[in-house]
Amino acid sequence: MDATSPIAAAAPRPPRPLHRFAHPGRFLRASGRVLPWLAAAALAVLAVGLAWALAFSPPDWQQGETVRIMYVHVPMAWLAMGGYLALALASAAALVWRHPLADLFARELSPAGAVVTALCLATGSLWGKPMWGTWWVWDARLTSVLVLFFLWLGHAALVRAFDEPERGARAGAILALIGVVNLPIVKFSVDWWNTLHQPASVTRLGAPALHVDILYPLLVCALGFALAFAAVVLARTRAAVMERRIRALELARARREERGAAP
Amino acid sequence: MTRKRRRLYVLLLCALGLGSATALTLTAFRDNLVFFRSPSDVVAEPPPPARAFRLGGLVETGSVERATGPDGRPTVRFRVTDGAHAIPVAYSGVLPDLFREGQGVVTLGHLGADGVFRASEVLARHDETYMPPEVAEALKRAGHWNPAQGGAPPAAGWNTLDPARAAPARSGGS
To answer: Is residue B103 located within the same domain as residue B54?
Structure first.
């Protein structure tokens, strides 16, 4: 790493930080310690955030109480996109560095990503009917998020469609990386084309166009849902690692028994 | 090590190719992927008669006339403007709750020979600002904003405004 220091160059290379957690046993130990705290933090933040958002924050001046759908809709939209970015990074790590955990992480991430994207679409539809006057329109934002949902579903199905998990993981990683072109389209669709969906309120140049009494509960809810999402994905990945271990152990035992039975 | 590096380069090359292909496609579609057309678009390039399209813009202030049609359904006439041009719209049916003067709308219909757009559907298009009713009231009282005239003033002027104290002196700008 540090080419200027002769000592660092002479010493044996320390393990790369990425690879330290690639070891499944080490991952299981570390994640087992983190998971209860992550889950507890998610519950605590969500309890505070949802109570604040649904009961104690003011209504909007023109949308009234309906604006409270935002406190679920917007975190789900951010998670759908942020989660997909994580899927793409894991897929790149799996393709380039053959990171063994990255495949499992991607495999366990996509069903959770499909769920949050579906929730984003469903809450958006429920919000659109009273405010816009329609459940659904084929504008650029709504359509690109629907494409994102299909990418999540397609990835979840593709990695499970092969008899050999390695081939499924590789096909899924390629699909995930191709699908990443959709992310900037989702984000900037409301700026590039005219859409029924309004432009971004929080992540825009200049001040957020939400009053702080609405913005702060939204940010707390977003943090809470993000922690919960991370906890679910971590728990799924742990389960997948253990499952793979059990399968390897059973396979080894079956082989031993076969060898023992043979004359 | 070198195989990993090669895989990384292949991946980056693929990303570059895919990225530029997408960028080119999107640039080509830029003008076609519109959900609605503005009054200026329609004036500059009138669509063929009886062709249905979506007309979007703001409801012009003072242009809304409500009546009850011969069949007892509410009818409404208003003008959709983008500042430069305005097109009269006739619609009969139930309007969305957010419909008002100064609000964004997207209407689906066709342009009649008399220049009136006959809408079969009117959707409200709200902006990206969210504020409590008290803050909106304070801004209106202080004369910083008339919702019928257009969008809210720059967000930095009101997004930390305390409605209990309602100090309009803070809402600089506008």
So the answer is: yes
